[in-house]
Amino acid sequence: VKHEQLYQLCLRLYPRDFQEKYSREILLTFRNALLDTRSRGTRFSIFRFVVLAIFDVLKSVVEQRLLAGRKVKMSVNRWNWIARGLCVLTGMVLLSGSLLMWSVIETRGWAWANELEGILRTEPSMVLFLGCMVLLNLTSVLALTGFLRRLGLHSAWLPSIMAWLGFMVSIWGLATFPGDVVEPPSVPWMIFWTGLLLGFLAWALLGLVIRQQVKVCQRFLIPLLVGLLGMSGFSAFPLVKLNNLGSTGSALDCIVQHANLPVFEDDTRLFSQPVGTLFRCIAEAESKNYQQTAQIINLKRAQFFGLQCLILTSFAMIWLGITLKFQEEEVLSLSNPSSQMPIKS
Amino acid sequence: MIEPLTPAVFHILLALADQERHGYGIMQDVFARTNGQIKLGAGTLYGTIKRLLEAGLIEELPEREDEDNERRRYYQLSTKGKIAARTEAERLENLVCVARSKKLLPQLEGSR
């Protein structure tokens, strides 16, 4: 029974269509073969049989998954190639942009941060960032609506336009964000978060549209979800604008003096501390009512989190671009896989 | 151009050449016919069956009970499948003839 359960678990790895049609038959066949082996074999031969059977299923799972991926039938047209190229391009620009942004935040590990500091510390980096965001918006419209429309997904227009509007509004809000003061009820604050919320909603809706309407798009779902996840985390990014290094030193002094934590020479050292230490720092600060310190540390962590999520989004975009492979038609090959030649009988 | 069939495909076609069988029946037939040298795994078997069905080389019959009172799906060779199996058998025969002419295999009694 245990062998069967284990085998059944493996069968769940098959693509759903295959699973629905063949998993019962495969299980029956396995059961018959197992009974056969049991009737004339030793414990070792049973064990060997089960291991080989599971290995066989796993190999077959990979094959079926690859085949399912190849069955995306779609005529290749210019729009698809543009969408694909833009996805990769956006991902790469976003990635390089976010890495540059990362480098200008004082972290350990980016040795060239100091050299670039003068160039990228302030406005240019923000311009670069905004440029990336604009490109991302354009891509979200072109790449998503473009190829989804080819699949007959006209309803994808709505979430894509929502995404585009959402991001544009977010950028506007970000551009007008107050430099060093957090004022939650302020108009830019409201604009930014409304826009971002709209964008997230749109991405989620888009995911649902794809999931429900097009089975072949399942392979795009993962990068889209990763992108959504990344963009959600990226919401922490505007907090970069709230960075106030001047007050960090004195706040840290307080921690060092009152909370008896390791000495931080400056905020650069602070963020090269292990995450656990930071958490302890925050907890100590909060427990001793050093709210300001805790906030600053949280802001710093948010910056890192935001940038990491942006990098995640970049990879998702590149991934999405790479996986956009549409074939004119599926060629079923029964011949030796290595030969890649179809049989004609 | 006709490409050789994979051993798994050819063995399944051979198993279905004389009678319709279910998956396990095919597996047993291949095992017995090859003296235990080829034992198809259930995953490989049904993956290949799926491809053969899609290519129209075999046909699926309505489910029915086997000797163990289990409802099972049976498969039979289609006309296209028979042609494919015959073509592959002829290809292999030609190869054997070449091997004989090169004296890699002994000549047959009648052909001397």
Question: Mind sketching the topology for me?
Answer:
The complex is a heterodimer of chains A (345) and B (112).
Chain A: H1 2-11, H2 16-40, H3 43-70, H4 78-104, H5 113-120, H6 123-150, H7 157-175, H8 187-213, H9 218-234, H10 245-259, H11 267-270, H12 275-287, H13 291-323
Helix pairs in contact in A: 1-2, 1-3, 2-3, 4-5, 4-6, 4-13, 6-7, 7-8, 8-9, 9-13, 10-13, 12-13
Chain B: H1 7-15, E1 21-22, H2 23-33, H3 42-55, E2 58-65, E3 71-77, H4 79-101
Antiparallel strand pairs in B: 1-3, 2-3
Helix pairs in contact in B: 1-2
The largest β sheet of chain A comes out as: none
Give the oligomer, counting copies of the same chain as homo and different chains as hetero.
heterodimer
Terminal CA distance of chain A reads: 43 Å
Question: Looking at the structure, what is the overall shape of chain B?
Answer: elongated
**Class computed from helices, strands and strand pairing of chain A:** mainly alpha
Low-pLDDT segments of chain A: 72-77, 104-125, 176-183, 211-217, 235-275, 326-345
What proportion of the residues of chain B is helical, as a percent range?
40-55%
Order of helices and strands of chain A: HHHHHHHHHHHHH
The whole-angstrom Rg of chain A is 27 Å
How far apart are the first and last residues' alpha carbons of chain B, in Å? 32 Å
| Number of strand elements of chain B | 3
Strand content of chain B: 15-25%
How many helices of chain A? The count is 13
What pattern of helices and strands is seen along the backbone of chain B?
HEHHEEH
**How many β-strand stretches of chain A?**
0
Number of helices of chain B: 4
Strand content of chain A: under 5%
For the biggest sheet of chain B, the summary is: 3 strands, antiparallel
Give the averaged pLDDT of chain B, no decimals. 86
Average pLDDT over all residues of chain A: 58
Poorly predicted runs of chain B: none
